[in-house]
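## tool: complex_structure
## caller: assistant
## args:
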Amino acid sequence: MEYFLILSAIMMFAGIFGFLTRRSTLAILLSIELMLNATDINFAVFNRFMWNASGAHEGYFFSLFSIAISAAESAIAIAIMINIYRHLKDISIDKLQKMKW
Amino acid sequence: MNLDYSQFLVMREELSLLAVILILFVADLLFCPDKKSGKGIYNSPLPVILLSVMTLCNLIPCCGATDAEAFGGMYQYTPMMTIVKSVLNVGTLIVFLMANKWLSRPENLVKQGEFYMVTLFTLLGMYLMISSGHFLMFFIGLELASIPMCALVAFDKYRYESAEAAAKYILLALFSSALLLYGLSFIYGASGTLYFKDMFSQLPGDSLLTLVGMVLFISGMGFKISLVPFHLWTADTYEGAPTVVTAYLSVISKGAAAFVMLIVLGKVFDTAALVNEWRILLFWIIVASITLANLFAIRQTNLKRFMAFSAISQAGYLVLAIMPASAQGMTSLVYYLLVYLVANFGVFAVINVVEQNSGKLGISDYNGLYETNPKLAFLMTLSLFSLAGIPPFAGFFSKFFVFMAAFQEAKLLVFIALVNTIVSLYYYLLIVKAMYISKNDTPIASFRSDNYSRAALLLCTAGVVLLGIVGSVYTYIDGFSYIPSL
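## result:
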C-alpha cells in the first residue's frame, strides 16, 4: 500500500510543481489533471487496502465521480483557453497580464 | 429495491429550483429572441417572478419543519438551511434585477436564457453543498457551484478582460479543488467513511493524516471564500468579470461556502484536539484577510477591484463567526450574510447602473456624482456606511453580533477586527468623499435608471435601513440555529 501512496504523492507534487513552473496554460491544465488523478489513486488505494472489509465501496465511487467532474472542468477550461487564443493568438500565461495589482 | 419516494419531499428546495430551471429552459426554447429585429420576447420578468414565488413557497412551510435526512444520510436538512437558501435566493433575485439592463444589450440578447440558467445551476450546486451529509455530495455541489461560475465570468465573449479573468479563476479553482480532494482522500483514509455523522466518531483526532486532510480542506474552502493566503485570484477575476457576475461572486458563492465551512468544521472536526488546531489556523487566516485586504483596498483606483478587497476583508468577518462553532455563531453568520448581501448589492447596483449608462468604473470617475445624480450617490453612501458598520445601519448590528459570538473564544481576534473596522471606515469614506466633495470637470452625466435597477436598489436600501432597526429578524433566525456538532 505504501508504494501506491508514494506514487500518488509523487504525482501530486509533480502536478503542483508543473502548475507553478509551466508557462503555457495548457501545460498547467495537464498538471492539474495529474493532481486530480493522484487523488483518485489515493481514494481507490485507501478503499482497497484499508476499508475493504465491510464491502464498502465509497472510495471507488468517489474516484469515479471525481473523474467525471474533472472531465467537465477541463472542458470548460479549454473553452476559455480557446476564447483567449482568439483574442491574443497565444495562450502563454505571461500574456495574461492586462490586470494586475 | 424499494425506494421510498417520500424522501424526495425533504429535498423540496432543490426540486423546486430544478423546476424553475426547467421552466426557464423551455421558455428560452419557445420564446427565443428574434435575431433580425434584435427584440426578444424572452426579455420578460419571468425569471424574477418565478424565483420570488419559489422563495416564498420555501419560506412558508419552513416554520413547522423539523430536521430530516434522505438517502441514508447523504442529504441532510435542518430548518436553518431553508433560511440560508432563502437568503441566497433573495440575493440571486437582486442579481437578476440588476442584470436586466445589461442583458438587454444587443450582443447579449441571444444569451439571456443562458445567463439565467447557468446562474441558477450554480445556485443549485450551493443548495446541494449546504445540505450535504456526505463528502461526495459536498464535492459535487462544490463543483456544480464553481464550474458554471467560470462560464459566467467568461460571459462577455468579445471583451478580453472577461476571458482573462475566467482563465485565472478556473485554473486556481481547479488547483484548489485538487488540493481539497487530496485532503478529503486523507480524511477518508483515516476514518474509513465519508458520512459526516459517522466521521465524527471514527476520526482519530491525533493522527497526522487527519491533520493534513483538515488543513488541505480549509485551504480549499479558503479559496472559495477568498481568504488571504488564497485570495490572489479575487481582484483580477472581480475586475474582469461582468459587473453583475462580480456581484454574484462576491456575496452568494462566498456566503454558501462560509456556511458549509461552519457545518463541516463544527460537525466533522469536532474532537477537542482538532478544534484547537483549526482555531489556530483560522485565527491567522482571519487576521491576515482582514488586515491585508484593508491595506490593499486603500490603494485601488478601479471601483470593482476596490470592492474585491473590501469583499476579502468582509469574508474575514464572516469566518470570524465560525470560530466559536456555537448556535450563536451560526445565527450571527447567517445574519451577517444577509446584511452584507443587501449592503454589497446596494453598492454593486449603483456601480452597475453607472457602468451601463456611462461605461465608467474608476473611483476618480465618481468625483462629483452627487452634483449630477444625487439619488444614486445617496443610496451608495447608505450602503457604504452599512458595509463600514456605522451605527444606525444594519452593518453595525451584524458586526456587533459576530463580535459578541466570537468574544468568548477569541478576545484578541475580536480586538484586531475592531481596529480594522476603523481602517475600513477610512477607505469606504474615500468613495463618499469622491462623490460629495471632490470636483470633477467631466462628471458622469445625469441619467434615469431603468425600472429593474430601481427595484434592485429599492430592495437593497430597504434591507440596509430596516434590517438593523427591526430586531426581530435576528431573533427569528436565532430560533432556527443549532450547535453544528449536534
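## assistant note: The domain at 2-92 of chain A is CATH 1.10.287.3510 (Helix Hairpins). Chain A has three helices and no strands. Handing back to user.
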